[in-house]
Write a structure and sequence with these properties.
By secondary structure, the chain is an alpha/beta fold. It has 10 helices and 15 strands.
């Protein structure tokens, strides 16, 4: 198929600090060069990082006028000379990291939305090595939820010390990473304890397979509750998305010598963590999403078990700002998606 001609709509961040700086623009559909493919983006999804970027709270470098969002899925509609990895009509999603194909974390990366143009656009030219196929049973909206949150959850459940069927994990809250962690954990034969602040969300977490759900507002010392539920032993892994405000309790909840997978910084302040707390209780491992190999391995499990991501709400392309506002509200369960169709 020849490269489509004409214009496309994209969103660009003129500067950070406010959603008002996110503006829709009309641009020429980019031409495919040798070794590239053109993806008609069908859907994208939001992560906490995207909100931090637009609000100017992201700790890393942010280049001006970038197209936001690290997560997107679509159909390949044109291929450049020499491309053999994919062909026209293939359904794909972008890997979160542009340079990480497998093995150890690379020395240099250019994340989407902050350094490189992201997925909040109708068409995207990209190197096919940066794409993965999405499972056949998933829609584009469902496929768009996978690159960041799902791969992060997958990486948290793997690592130097693999979990085994019958092990127990602890998840925090009901955002994308935590919900994916529960879904993947159940496919791997793991037990799940979860926390939330909402009785309504607690029921949803139980429906996904959490055997025990603790309301952290009603039980501030939920680490002790986790220990009690595990007969004083603690969990084998904590999927720690909270940061400073939850780390102390996560240390109390983990079994001695087991792992806390450090993922997020959803909280700014918290109880001071002492050196001896870490030394005597837990190992920590920092998770930075994952490689293309991680993504592909996870997709094989998702396809085999026909797992379906949990989507709270799908916004239209014209409602991108409303999607960001809903993310900031913290009222969602699972993932927030923008449909580009």
């Amino acid at each position: 198929m020849a490269n489509p001609q004409g214009t496309m709509r994209s969103y660009r961040m003129k500067k950070t600090g406010s959603l008002d700086h996110l503006q829709m623009v009309t641009e020429e559909i980019p031409a495919v060069q040798r070794g590239e493919v053109l993806v008609r983006v069908k859907a994208s999804s939001l992560n906490y990082r995207d909100l931090a970027l637009i609000k100017g709270e992201y700790p890393g470098e942010i280049r001006p006028h970038r197209i936001p969002l690290s997560d997107g899925a679509g159909e390949i509609v044109a291929v450049g000379e020499g491309v053999r990895r994919f062909q026209v009509g293939d359904r794909v999603a972008g890997n979160f990291h542009r340079e990480w194909f497998g093995g150890e974390y690379p020395d240099y990366i250019e994340p989407y939305g902050s350094h490189s143009d992201g997925w909040l656009t109708e068409y995207k030219v990209i190197n096919p090595e940066l794409l993965v196929s999405i499972p056949d049973h998933l829609s584009y909206e469902q496929g768009a939820t996978l690159p960041c949150a799902a791969v992060t959850a997958w990486s948290a459940l793997h690592g130097p010390e693999p979990l085994s069927p019958g092990d127990t994990i602890l998840t925090l809250g009901s955002g994308g990473v935590s919900v994916f962690a529960i879904q993947l954990a159940k496919l791997l034969g793991l037990h799940v304890i979860a926390t939330t602040s909402s009785d309504r969300k607690a029921e949803k977490l139980k429906e996904l397979g959490a055997e025990k759900v603790i309301n952290y507002k009603k039980t501030p010392n939920w680490g002790e509750e986790v220990k009690a539920f595990t007969s004083g032993r603690g969990v084998d892994r904590v999927v720690e998305v909270g940061g400073p405000g939850t780390l102390h309790q996560s240390i109390q909840a983990v079994a001695r010598g087991k792992e806390i997978a450090l993922i997020g910084v959803l909280t700014k302040d918290g109880e001071k963590v002492g050196y001896h707390d870490l030394f005597f209780n837990a190992n920590t491992r920092t998770i930075s999403v994952g490689s293309r190999q991680d993504f592909e391995e996870m997709n094989r499990l998702i396809e085999d078990k026909k797992m379906v991501p949990v989507i709270d709400h799908v916004f239209s392309f014209d409602e991108a700002k409303e999607a960001y506002a809903y993310l900031e509200s913290q009222k969602f369960f699972g993932k927030i998606v923008i449909s580009h169709s």
